[in-house]
């Protein structure tokens, strides 16, 4: 029975009522209350690696016009773009999509930028960027990943009272399947990505990850995201699919791709993903998914060297909040094996980095010795008592400059490899602790099952007549 507030407390009463009303409008959830929205919601997500390198990517300006037209026509809720390397291209899309996707953000990182851009039909309430600790090598300038500052961007959306956490990322490219010198870096990036998602999605009703992961579905990084972070793959979960065979997003029919690199994989690979998971308050399912198929009708080229992904997620708020499901022994064992395998790859990368650091140190000592020898040779005419002899200054200066360059380059590489060693060691330590914690959970699991069975046994005994 409700009673009217006392005259002296009326101001406090109405203040608290106003505060609670504003919290509900913002979509705040209370742990023991049911979710207010019960009608299913449809959320359309778009993801594309735009391949937007200024002066290098073919038909870049025309393709951005095509991408803008596509996003304007299809009425997506969220568009996750990668390799938007120029802010001018981002502002072009922002102007073009001002009416259909009015909210946007460009994540800045590295020398060229992260290349990550987000457009949303719903207001963006918060953003955050996490830059990966490892991202290739600066001397591999023709690959360019190190200069890009690869990272994961997060944005917070409030959609009809539901807190939706959206992540967009782009991992290091795989330039050779057989001799992948970046495998350890990509495993570290996948580990940091799943850690970042797990530790920042508290309170989320829905979690969505989209982007170019540069990993095949059976690779370690994807397994980590699916098993440890609990994300589900739209391509696997979808009720309806339309697009390239096997969900390929890098196909030989695309004129911008190197068909020689893709031919061993049967005409294409799947390296772009949209992953999702729900919560105890919202059940999420993938209603449909599609990819583009190379050439765009009416044009002589496609949107990008990657195929675009689009999916429709069905968000079903639950009337009452459900608890988290406990992991069983099989899933825990599989997760332990995956983390152990990832730890092994990190150890391999750690040994390579230590070897390269030692090589850089030896090269630096050699450069220093040559430089000291040069200085000693230059001092000989000063202390000589005989007649002055001509000294080859040009050759001396050239050789001295070469020794100094060797010394400086070796010092730079030693510092870089020392940082790589520290990052790999840190990740390996995290994985070791994670494996130990998971093993403890696996040991405790039979005890929990036995205790539950022992508690149920008395209830199962029928009373005697």
Automatic annotation (TrEMBL):
<feature type="domain" description="Endonuclease/exonuclease/phosphatase">
    <location>
        <begin position="47"/>
        <end position="306"/>
    </location>
</feature>
<dbReference type="Pfam" id="PF03372">
    <property type="entry name" value="Exo_endo_phos"/>
</dbReference>
<keyword id="KW-0443">Lipid metabolism</keyword>
<dbReference type="InterPro" id="IPR036691">
    <property type="entry name" value="Endo/exonu/phosph_ase_sf"/>
</dbReference>
<dbReference type="GO" id="GO:0046872">
    <property type="term" value="F:metal ion binding"/>
</dbReference>
<protein>
    <recommendedName>
        <fullName>Sphingomyelin phosphodiesterase 2</fullName>
        <ecNumber>3.1.4.12</ecNumber>
    </recommendedName>
</protein>
<feature type="transmembrane region" description="Helical">
    <location>
        <begin position="396"/>
        <end position="417"/>
    </location>
</feature>
<comment type="pathway">
    <text>Sphingolipid metabolism.</text>
</comment>
<keyword id="KW-0472">Membrane</keyword>
<dbReference type="InterPro" id="IPR005135">
    <property type="entry name" value="Endo/exonuclease/phosphatase"/>
</dbReference>
<keyword id="KW-0479">Metal-binding</keyword>
<keyword id="KW-1133">Transmembrane helix</keyword>
<keyword id="KW-0746">Sphingolipid metabolism</keyword>
<feature type="transmembrane region" description="Helical">
    <location>
        <begin position="365"/>
        <end position="384"/>
    </location>
</feature>
<dbReference type="InterPro" id="IPR038772">
    <property type="entry name" value="Sph/SMPD2-like"/>
</dbReference>
<keyword id="KW-0460">Magnesium</keyword>
<comment type="pathway">
    <text>Lipid metabolism; sphingolipid metabolism.</text>
</comment>
<keyword id="KW-0812">Transmembrane</keyword>
<dbReference type="GO" id="GO:0004767">
    <property type="term" value="F:sphingomyelin phosphodiesterase activity"/>
</dbReference>
<keyword id="KW-0378">Hydrolase</keyword>
<dbReference type="GO" id="GO:0006665">
    <property type="term" value="P:sphingolipid metabolic process"/>
</dbReference>
<comment type="similarity">
    <text>Belongs to the neutral sphingomyelinase family.</text>
</comment>
<dbReference type="GO" id="GO:0016020">
    <property type="term" value="C:membrane"/>
</dbReference>
């Amino acid at each position: 029975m409700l009673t009217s507030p006392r005259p002296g407390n009326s101001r406090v009463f109405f203040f608290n009522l106003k505060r609670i009303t504003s919290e509900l409008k913002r979509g705040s959830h209370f742990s023991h209350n049911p979710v207010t929205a019960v009608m299913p919601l449809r959320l359309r997500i778009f993801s594309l690696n735009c391949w937007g390198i200024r002066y290098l990517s073919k038909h870049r300006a025309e393709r951005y016009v095509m991408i803008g037209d596509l996003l304007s026509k299809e009425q997506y809720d969220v568009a996750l773009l990668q390799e938007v390397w120029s802010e001018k291209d981002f502002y072009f899309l922002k102007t073009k999509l001002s009416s259909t996707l009015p909210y946007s953000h460009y994540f800045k990182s590295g020398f060229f930028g992260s290349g990550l851009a987000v457009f949303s039909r719903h207001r963006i309430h918060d953003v955050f960027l996490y830059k990966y600790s490892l991202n290739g090598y600066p001397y591999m300038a023709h690959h360019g990943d190190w200069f890009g500052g690869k990272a994961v961007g997060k944005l917070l959306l409030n959609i009809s009272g539901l807190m939706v956490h959206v992540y967009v990322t782009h991992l290091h490219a795989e330039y050779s399947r057989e001799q992948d010198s970046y495998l350890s870096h990509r495993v570290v990036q996948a580990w940091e990505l799943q850690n970042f998602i797990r530790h920042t999605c508290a309170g989320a009703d829905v979690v969505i990850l989209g982007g170019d992961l540069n990993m095949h579905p059976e690779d370690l990084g994807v397994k980590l995201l699916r098993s440890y972070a609990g994300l589900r793959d739209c391509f696997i979960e979808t009720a309806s699919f339309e697009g390239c065979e096997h969900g390929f997003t890098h196909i030989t029919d695309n004129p911008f791709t190197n068909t020689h690199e893709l031919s061993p994989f049967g005409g294409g690979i799947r390296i772009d993903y949209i992953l999702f998971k729900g919560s105890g308050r919202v059940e999420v399912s993938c209603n449909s998914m599609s990819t583009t198929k190379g050439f765009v009708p009416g044009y002589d080229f496609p949107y990008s060297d990657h195929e675009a992904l689009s999916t429709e997620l069905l968000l079903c708020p639950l009337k009452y909040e459900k608890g988290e499901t406990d992991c069983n022994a099989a899933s825990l064992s599989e997760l332990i094996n995956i983390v152990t395998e990832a730890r092994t790859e990190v150890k391999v990368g750690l040994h390579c980095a230590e070897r390269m650091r030692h090589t850089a140190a030896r090269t630096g000592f050699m450069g220093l010795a040559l430089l000291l020898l040069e200085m000693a040779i230059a001092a000989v005419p000063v202390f000589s008592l005989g007649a002055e002899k001509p000294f080859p200054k040009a050759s001396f200066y050239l050789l001295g400059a070469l020794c100094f360059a060797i010394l400086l380059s070796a010092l730079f590489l030693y510092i870089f490899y020392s940082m790589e060693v520290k990052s790999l060691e840190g990740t390996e330590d995290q994985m070791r602790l994670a494996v130990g914690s998971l093993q403890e959970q696996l040991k405790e699991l039979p005890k929990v099952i036995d205790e539950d069975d022992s508690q149920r046994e008395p209830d199962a005994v029928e009373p005697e007549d």
